[in-house]
Amino acid sequence: MTTTPTYRAWTRLSGGPFGSTPLGSALFSLGMCARVPYFATVLPRVTLLEPGRCEVRAPKWWGVHNHLGTFHAIAACNLAEAAMGMLAEATVPTTHRWIPKAMTTRYLTKATTGLHAVAQLTDLPDFETITGDTGGAELTIPVSIGDKNGTEVVHADITVWITRR
Description:
Helix content is about 25%, strand content about 30%. It is of the alpha+beta class. The protein has one domain (about 5-165): Hotdog Thioesterase (Thiol Ester Dehydrase, Chain A). A hairpin with a 2-residue loop joins strand 1 (about 45-50) and strand 2 (about 55-60). The longest helix is centred in the middle third of the chain and has 19 residues, at about 75-90. It is globular.
């Protein structure tokens, strides 16, 4: 599999001179928010990124509160999309492109703490089979969002449409 520019940037920042401190993760996350400004609304911090897996944390702060003072459901969706998007950026080769097509979300319980999103594919698709002849392919990326106690509070399945460039 070819390494994508996003994954190379993560590898350089998280494993380079900043690897022993949270600085590399913070710099990568700032870059992500500069590229996709809406993600910044949840103050995301990418903590792990590799083809097929991404983990992102978001603190509970007043900007994500709902009327109950808990983590707002749509803010949790934003966190899920950030994790899915970085997974896709690290996984989909540069010969292809992706775009979100659908999201199914289940709100399982109130989120009273900061959250930890994990987007993970158990099997990576064979991108070589996605050609101009097939038009494209759907790929559903599950995202589990847990609270600080490890309880899953939100689950999202985000479907992306992948085509050859």
